[in-house]
Every structure is written in C-alpha cells, then in structure tokens.
UniProtKB/TrEMBL annotation:
Superkingdom as given in the UniProt entry: Eukaryota
Keyword Endoplasmic reticulum listed: no
Cellular component terms (Gene Ontology): plasma membrane
Protein name, UniProt field: Epithelial chloride channel protein-like isoform X1
Database matches in PANTHER family: CALCIUM-ACTIVATED CHLORIDE CHANNEL REGULATOR, CALCIUM-ACTIVATED CHLORIDE CHANNEL REGULATOR 4 PRECURSOR-RELATED
UniProt keyword list: Membrane, Signal, Transmembrane, Transmembrane helix
UniProt-listed CDD domains: vWFA
Transmembrane stretches, start-end: 873-896
Matching InterPro entries: CLCA_N, CLCR, Ig-like_fold, VWF_A, vWFA_dom_sf
Domain VWFA, first and last residues per copy: 308-475
N-terminal signal peptide: 1-22
Amino acid sequence: AVIVKMFAVVVLVLIALKSATTIRLDGNGYTDILVVINPTVPENEELLNQIKKMFISGSEYLFEALEHKVFFKEVKILVPPTWTSGKYEKATTESYKKGKIRIEDSFSQYGNEPYTHQTEGCGREGDYIHLTPDFLLNNHISEPYGPRERVFVHEWAHLRWGVFDEYNTREPFYLSAAGHIQPTRCTDKISGEWYELNNQNPRSCQIDASGKPSPRCEFFPDYIQTAKASIMFMQSLLSVKAFCGEKEHNYEAPNEQNKQCGKATRTKATHTVIFENSVDKDALRNLNPLSSVPTPPTFKVIQRGIRVICLVLDVSGSMQGLRISQQQRAATFFLNQITDEKQFVGLVTFSTDAQILSPLTKIDGPAARQKLINSLPTVASGSTNICTGLRKGFELLRTDDGQTIGDEIIFLTDGEASDNVQACLQESVQSGAIIHTLAFGPSADNILRTMAEQTDGKFIVAEESILSNQLVDAFSSLTVYDGNSFTQPIQLESTGTDVKDWFNGTVPIDRSVGNHTTFTIIYERSAPTVNIVSPSGVVYDQRHITDIAKTITFTIPGTAEPGNWRYSFFNKETSAQEISLTVISRAAHDDVYPVTVTARMDQQTSDGTKPMVVLAEVSQNYIPVLGASVWAKLRSDTGHSEELQLLDNGAGADVFKNDGIYSRYFTKLKRGKYNLKVRVEHQQGAVQVFFHRHSGSLYIPGHIVDGKVKINPPKPKINVQPVDVGNFTRTVTGESFVVDRDTTINFPPNKITDLIAEIKEDTVLLNWTAPGEDFDVGKVKSYEIRWSDDLKMLQENFTSCDLDNSSSLVPQESGFAEQYFFQPNITIKNGTTLFFAVQSMDKESTKSEVSNIARATNYVPGPSLISNQGPNAIIISLCVVALVACVIAVVIKWAVKRNR
C-alpha cells in the first residue's frame, strides 16, 4: 500500500512537471507554445516583435472566437544559435523539431503561404504551423490572407483541434441539393460575386460543358458582411469572429472539413469537433467563460547552446558477453558517425557504483573521437543501480557550466533496476536535461519509457542480436535536427544476416547525398574480407578500412560517386557468424536538398482496444516524395514481429493522398515493447513530387467594395521541377512504443473515404479503394451499396435508402482499386443528381462505418454561355443550358419522325 501511494504521488508530480515542449491548457490559458526560427533566417529584432504582435492580437481574437474561454498565456521563441545580438535565455528541453510554429524562409513550392502540416484525421493534433519571415514582415504579402492574428487563429485550429478547411480550391463550386450552383464555403450566408480574372481584369464567369463555372472562376466576397462564421473558411472578413456551428454548418459543401469529419449521420461543424473531439474537449466543455479580457501573453526568447552529451552505460553483471560487446560497437558507431564537430561528449558507467570514464571532451577531430572510443567499457559485473548512474551523469554534465539544463544523457541498460528508480525520477525531470533511454533486451525496466517521456527524450528498445542491427539503429536515431537538413547524418542502409560464406548487396547513393559517406560493418567473432565497388568500378578492400572493437569502418573519400555501390563480405570462418552493415551519408550539394524520412506511431502506448497507425514521411525540403516503396517492421521484446507496407493512397489509415505521408494500421496487437524500423526504396528515376497543401489559409483574390471589384495582387505561381536524384534507399528507426495487453477485439473494416461517382448515360460508375477485414489489413467479405436523390436521407438514414444488389462484386485485397457499374431504377435526365455511399462487412459480419458520400450529376453539354456575376445569374445560365438542351432534343426527335 505504501508503494502504491508513493507511486501515485510521483505520477502527480510528473503531471505537474510534464514536458516543456508540449502545449498545455493551463486553466483558460495556453502555455508552453514553442515558436522556432530556422537557422537560415538572419537575426532580426523586428521579426521577434511581429511574432509577439501576432500572438497578442491573436489571443484577443481567439478569446472572442471561443466564447471567452481560452487565450494565449505563455509563448517561447527559440532563436538560432547563430543569433548573437540579443540576450537570450538558455533553452532546456526545447528543440527545433519540437517547435509547433516554424518560422522559415519561403520555399518555392508553397511561397509565403501560411499552412499547417496535418498528418492525422479529424480531431487529432497537427504537427506544426509554417510561416515565413516575409509573411510576418511584409504587409503586401500578408494582406490577401487577412490580418496576421486571424490567419494564426485559423492555423491554430488546424494545429490544436484537428479541424480542416471549409473551402476547396480544387472544387470551388458545387451543385446544391436544391439545384443551385454555390461556392464551397461555410456558412452559405457569406455573400459575394463570381468573376474570372483575365490579366487581373475581372469578367463574368463562363459555364463549362459540365454545367459548372469554369476552373478560372473565383468567388469574390463582399467586403461588408454580417455573417460571423466561419474562421475556417474566410477569416479575413472583418465580420467573421466565430467557428461554424451546427446551426450555420453547410453539410453539403465538398470541403476537407466535411470529408474528414463526416460520419454516417451529418458531417460535423468545426465548433462541434473542437468541443467534442479535440484534445481540449473536456476542458472546453467544463471551463467557465472569463468575465474580462485576459492579460497579453508573456514571452521568453531562448537559444540552444552547443550540444553536450553524456553516455551513461550499463556495466552490470547481466551485460557480460555479447551485450557488453554490442554496447561497445554501437557506441563506437555513434562517436564516429553521429556526433558532430564542436559537440562535447563524456562517458559514465554504472553497476553497483558509478564512475566517470571520460570527462566532457570536445569533438574537434579524429583524435578526440578515438580517445572516447578507447575509453568505452569492455568488462561487466555487479548490480543495476540506475539512480547511481543517472546522478553520476548529472555530476559530469555540471562540470562545464555548473548546470544540466538543456544537456543530454543517453542512458543504456539491459536490466531491471536494483534500486528504487522512483526516487530519482522526479530529480531527472527537474534537472532540465533531455534523457534518451535505450532498453537493451527484454528485461529492461519499464520506468525507462516514463523517464524519456517526461524529459523530452527518446525511448527505444533494442534486441541484442547483431543481425537485427537495432542497437546501432537506436544510436543512429539520436541526432538533433536544428532545421538545417544539409548537416544531418542520413542512414541509407541498415541490414544484417547470419552468414556462412558471402554477404552481398547493393547500396544506391543518390545525388542528394554523398558527403562523409561511411560503411560500418559489425561482425560477431572474426573480421570478414571486405570488398566494396563504386559505380565506375573502383575497388576498395582491406587496405582502405579501419578495424576497431569488431567494427570495420570504410569512409568514401570526398563526395561519393552517385549510383549503385556493390559490397561483398566473405566470412572466413567455417561456421556462420552474424554480420551487419550500416551506411551513413550527408548532403552533397548546397542547392540539392537531401531526401529525408521520419517514422513514428500515432500513439506511444496502446491498451489493445483500438488499432495503432504507423506513419512515415518521405520528403525533400518539405516537398512530398511520391511513388516510394515503404515498409515498416515492428518487432517486440517478446518476439512478435509484423511487416507492413505503408501506403500514400488517401485510404484506410492514410488521411491525404499524395502528401508524402505513408501510413498503415497496426491491428495485430500483442503485449510488449516494440521497436519500429522503416525502410524506403525509390527506383523510378526522377523523384515524383506533389505541391498541393491540404491545410492553410485561403488567398483572397479580391473583394466587392461598394459594388466594384477590388483586386488583390495575383498569387505567386508554383514553378518547381522535380530533381532527378537517382535511385535511393533510406532506413530510419522511430521511437519505440508499448502495447499493454493482447487485443481480443475483432476490428471492423476501415471506413471508405475516397468513394467517387460518375453518371454515364443511364449507368453509374463507382470507384473506391478496397478496405481490409481488420481496418486496412486483409480483405472484406462484401459491400452494401446504397443511393438516393436526397442527400440528407442518405446521411441520416443509410439503411432506408435504395439498395443495389452488388453480390456479384468480389472484393479486392485492401489497398487495391474497386470499380463497380450499375443502373439505378430511375430515369436519369439532364440535371439528375444522385448520392451514393458504401458500407463493407467482414466474415464475422462486423460492419464498417458508412463511407463518404459521393455525388454525381448528369449534364447534357450545351453551348458555353457567359453568365453575369452572382448566384442568380448562374442559376439562370444553367436553366438556359438545360432549355437549349431540351430544344435540341425536341428538334432531333421531330427530325427523326419526319424522316420516318
């Protein structure tokens, strides 16, 4: 009972001391908001002032938009290490990668467009907001989006509450259920007119052959409005001061909000998602509105110093044999390949007691690295006193400036603690140090995950075999991203095998990397013969390598030749031994950004009641890379292993198609601590890229002011050509995760989210991506296809709508394209609009959610007519089109009769 009470007290303390880089809602105020500035941005005090102004005014706007319930309370701004003019406080656990608002120079694919990077579905937090210095400093650039504080609250809603845009630049108009052409918006009370711009001169919109306004037609809102919603459509309008609620919600609009936040019943309004589905849902429902305007947010400008690392390594008795050797090899790899020049590294070991093996040493060349490598432990004995090791690590970190704030500990252990780790857990959090924990083997103490989580460190599990290469991969992942991808080590290959004779393979080195390229070969007992051949045929062998601690290192001189590098390792022993290979490189050219990969799970713990999602992002300087083959391997400390192909198809677990985020559900959950490793291959020549972003503020082409069109400057066009970097591979290790118990649930098929419909004469064509038996894994048993001419009926009463007999349709495997034709039992006329939805069922008769609703309208093409601006004129034009079509039909019918 005493232990339980002690643990409860510690948990409460840790909640209070939770990560300084996680945004928190403290009462009514948001704290721990981290803004990070890219190192390419020059030092500029006015930029800091504009960031502060945006938050101060944005806090007032947010306060009004959310019914006086919330505001911005505390903001931290992390400036680059190269900024020297100001007096900046030292950062603790804050880092560039953890920044939720990124200030970076404009990139040609998005220009100065403010946007939010969202990778998960409705109600889930986004990754970060992206703003440029030009947007913050140049009124000419920001004005078409509206006041900066309004733009920021729009993006904040994406980031914090997981809502989506209520406009659609790809489908800016739609045919309403009443048969009227409407601009895609929420609410439909926002008034305006329709124009095409020809050399920035407005002219009336044309109606194309489909009956819709032409693609060049744009909506120009009235400058003076009475509608208060919605911020997720057009926050720039001065009357707009609220999120769209259920009363105002336009459930017909084909926008991302309705697509992502739709259920079998009506789609959810943004206000509903914020209060019912977001991370703040409970707090927002229970908070009382404040009676007065809150004080402006406080600001702290901080800066990271030079990276200081202490390796705290386990040398207890359980580490004897292979484990102590593996620790030595992996640490050697880390010191040689991952640590950067000018960083400081020290070594501490612990068992029953702890000792400093090497003081903090500045990495200033090969000699410093070798000195640290020579100090690595090779002997193990004693018990596992974790707190003793941690405290000795803190002692070492204090030797440079008397404190541990912002420093890092890499803590490796293979066993359960012999001491009471709870006693030093609070001390670890209060130290301000970042603690990465490596759980080596199945017996490592579970408290390691908590420690890493509470100090903003990484938690990674690794098994001891050489062929899995997990411990080397763990060390390889412990880099610090400062916003400069040109200096980051990039892992091209990580593989291993139990080899009796030859271990052969190929590593493609693409044109985006090639500097500081190394092949690291780790072997179990005796050194193999090494043969590495460049694409042009240059042979490198034993004469070009170093061999220390059963770790062979080959460094390619200068910049590696792009192309396929072949390797052959021959095991000279008569019996098999384990051999692993790791290839690391860095960017080769200042004008070609490297292709990078990140991997993670959507949650770090699971109780087995719902599936997890694996996500891997493949990009080149924020540009999504398409067409890659992406595989994830998940292996637990209990031996359970799964391999999943991740897809970027906009179906199943994947939220957006072609955004460079490859995803898949992980449904076969079994108890254990899991290692996550992702491998990416691309062998299709030029890298395919995609420039359409999914969440951001709308660029307004202009307004109607006193009955006249006021034009904004044209939006800068995107003009980026894909770079042919050649074939490439990447491997990356994500943070580990924990499944608390085996799942016993029969998961349903995933919801179909990409259903589209088309009417061809009297036939309907449906297309969608096949779901799986368990979410997006496997194959469903059957489909239930229903349709109606009443959208509301299909949304609210799916089972009462017309059912098509689709028993002849044999479902495909998950991820493959489904196509289905049928003839509805009605007469399809010109202007007929029908709505369709699909529900799938597995062999256990478990049904999926009803799919998105697809809309199809039959248009008989007529002559292209010029409409006047405004909805009434467009409706009249449609009527004219229909009338002309009818006249043509009557004339043809009369002519046929006459010929007879």
